[in-house]
Specification:
The complex is a heterodimer. Chain A has one helix at residues 2-15; strands spanning 20-21, 25-30, 33-39, 48-53, 56-61, 72-76, 82-88, 99-103, 106-112. By secondary structure, chain A is mainly beta. The termini of chain A are far apart. In chain B, a hairpin with a 2-residue loop joins strand 6 and strand 7. Classes of the chains: A mainly beta, B mainly beta.
Chain lengths: 125, 138
């Protein structure tokens, strides 16, 4: 009897673990910067959290839920849950100059290269 | 007694194929980008309903309002998306279409739609005479 209760408690604890979905993204290379585009449908303008820890860029975002509880479901294709994307940057980024915006459910992050990683033209003497 | 007109939503002919394909070969996330974009045909779609309306919700991130065409014809709702992606190397066109059968109980004049934060929500009111009615017992 006791063990039964214990397993039930464990199960309910497991259910509380938040599930994330990985958004689609694309990285574009520009002069001295990378532009990262992440598809975050349903995420409002201020709904994304971006952190840079060392060379690990972390993006989390919560979409607005339009579905009301009393609605019945006829078809369900869209995944649910918050978005989370972890990217390891293999170049030095100027962390103070990172700019990001969310528009029409697309997050655009501008990642400028740090001075030492930026492209330089070398004058021939 | 409960009369249910339908409990599954008749889908577009490719939906079941896509589903089986994804189940057999894994999600399209594993496929090379060339298979998906730029001409990826599909976008995910949800259908909900209450007593008065059906709600169709589609994920269209980065799609401007004027790139979406909505049409209700012969009980079929079609969502057509035509976006032009401008990149450094020129522009490319993406066309995506989804069609679903919405039944003949829709008040076509009352259909409305909004596009917000990359989510399209179409609201399809049920025709007055087809809504469920609560019968009072006298």
């Amino acid at each position: 009897m006791n063990t039964e209760i214990a397993t039930n408690q464990n199960q309910s604890a497991e259910k509380e673990v938040k599930s994330y979905r990985k958004p689609e993204y694309a990285v574009h290379s520009e002069d001295n910067a990378y532009r990262l585009e992440v598809h975050l449908p349903g995420v409002p303008k201020d709904g994304a959290r971006i952190t840079l820890d060392g060379n690990l860029l972390n993006i989390e975002a919560s979409p607005v839920d339009l579905v009301q509880e009393e609605w019945s479901t006829f078809r369900r294709e869209r995944a649910e849950g918050d978005f989370r994307l972890n990217l390891e940057l293999n170049v030095d980024i100027d962390a103070d100059e990172i700019k990001a915006k969310v528009e029409d459910g697309v997050l655009t992050v501008n990642l400028p290269l740090a001075a030492k990683a930026a492209k330089r033209t070398i004058a021939i003497q | 007694m409960k009369l249910v007109k339908r409990n599954t939503w008749p889908s577009d002919p490719f939906f079941e194929m896509d589903r089986l394909f994804n189940r057999a070969f894994g999600s399209s996330e594993l496929w090379p980008a060339a298979f998906k974009s730029p001409a990826h045909r599909d976008f995910p779609l949800d259908v909900y309903g209450d007593d008065e309306r059906y709600y169709v919700t589609a994920e269209l991130p980065g799609v401007p309002r004027d790139a979406v065409d909505l049409k209700v014809e012969n009980s079929v709702l079609s969502i057509m998306v035509n976006v032009e992606d401008k990149t450094e190397s020129g522009s490319s066109r993406r066309t995506m279409t989804r069609s679903i059968t919405v039944g003949d109980d829709i008040d076509i004049d009352g259909v409305s739609a909004k596009l917000e934060n990359g989510i399209l929500q179409v609201s399809l009111p049920k025709a007055e005479e087809r809504r469920p009615r609560k019968i009072e017992i006298s």
